[in-house]
Amino acid sequence: MEVRILSRKFDIADAHLLEVAKQHGAYATLDKVFAMPPADVTDEVKNSGLRGRGGAGFPAGLKWSFLPKGVDKPVYLTVNSDESEPATFKDRYILTRDPHLLIEGIIICCYAIGCHDCYIYIRGEYTTQRKALQFAIDEAYAAGYLGEKVAGHDFKLDVTVHRGAGAYVCGEETALLESIEGRKGQPRSKPPFPAVAGLYGCPTIINNVQTIASLPFILANGAAAYKAYGTEKSPGTHLFGISGHVEKPGMYELPLGLPLLEVIEKMAGGVWRGRKLKAVIPGGSSTPVLTPEEAATATLDYESMAAHKTMFGSGGIVVLDETVDVVELTKNLIDFYHHESCGQCTPCREGLGWMLKIVKQLLRGEGTIADIELLRELCDNIEMKTVCVLSAACTMPVRSYLDKFRSEFVAYATDRPKPEQA
Ligand SMILES: Cc1cc2nc3c(=O)[nH]c(=O)nc-3n(C[C@H](O)[C@H](O)[C@H](O)COP(=O)(O)O)c2cc1C
């Protein structure tokens, strides 16, 4: 099941060091890339069908082609290394185990889009990862892979690492830009989209770490080789982090399109302690949950997930066993998003707080059936009424818990003894 494209060097000792990485092929694609016209590099990425691995799955090459032509302004690449979605832990493997893969991908992307200044936005809590990344960047400068003449070619490229300060919303691409510019991390209204007016008002491409790290394989081996993995509409591989109630939690690189339950069984050893499966969160906390019956028919690709009205998002699969209290889980979820709301939009700032109050009331045994209906109504009234989708990242999963595990909410509103009776 497992494949090794992005993770090829992950188990090689010291592969984070340039010398070792080079022995295993790092930077080997650059001469080929620099011999191609930049537009051909973009075409190769388009043909590979690579879709953004930050969650939304937007086709990478297509995004690059939105950059306006003939504009007298610098073009920027910002690499999204915020990785703050609960249950997501894939990019950190690239940052620590093969940072030169990311740097090589950055060079390829920057050459294709005509960028000479790249920023990597890394979450504040990633101390070890930032050190590893900066060490690799310093090595790349010293060896001439970054700087005035990249790998001896007539192409200048500087890469700067920018640390976040621990805000989930700064993973949202325009909040990320605000943060780099030194302002409060609050998302911008779109349009204009960053490709037209992004960092410092200039054309900007924002891609996830894994998206960029996929480029060396595509350029080295061609689009067809990449498409040999995955399905027709979801080509390639993905780093899936499997956590929760499984025997072997971990990060696994898999071709897209595999049956979800088979992956949980074969890679992660199945539900732990011989317990029954209650539900699966397919792609990080913001994705609608799947019941065991739904999980049984879902495959890990964009189409199947859409057909199941969910997403594999950032590849963070969470397995929930029969002991999980869904109402408690819903409270934790809302608590997180309420805390992380930047406060710019009223429905998110006030609405998520209101939802949290209601679910806490239910948990205390003081809630009613009308409160459950109100919770559901709030989801509908908050979603898509805000500048960014942080609030939807809360209401979409909450709605799925309310709809699929309604009886558990009802039990709190009816069956449980009220505090004074207990
Ligand atoms: C609240 C919020 C948090 C996000 N966090 C991340 C993140 O940590 N990493 C990431 O790559 N994308 C994140 N995204 C998605 C980015 O806005 C953007 O779509 C992505 O970086 C684009 O890269 P891609 O096309 O390569 O996927 C987040 C979006 C939202 C709304």
TrEMBL record:
Any single GO BP term: cellular respiration
Keywords assigned: 4Fe-4S, Flavoprotein, FMN, Iron, Iron-sulfur, Metal-binding, NAD, Quinone, Translocase
Broad enzyme group: translocase
Domain NADH-ubiquinone oxidoreductase 51kDa subunit iron-sulphur binding: 327-372
UniProt key word Iron: yes
Cofactor section: FMN; [4Fe-4S] cluster
InterPro entries: ComplexI_51kDa_subunit, NADH-UbQ_OxRdtase_51kDa_CS, NADH-UbQ_OxRdtase_suF, Nuo51_FMN-bd, Nuo51_FMN-bd_sf, Nuop51_4Fe4S-bd, Nuop51_4Fe4S-bd_sf, SLBB_dom
Family: Belongs to the complex I 51 kDa subunit family.
Protein name per Swiss-Prot or TrEMBL: NADH-quinone oxidoreductase subunit F
Annotated organism of origin: Desulfoprunum benzoelyticum
Organism taxonomic ancestry: Bacteria, Pseudomonadati, Thermodesulfobacteriota, Desulfobulbia, Desulfobulbales
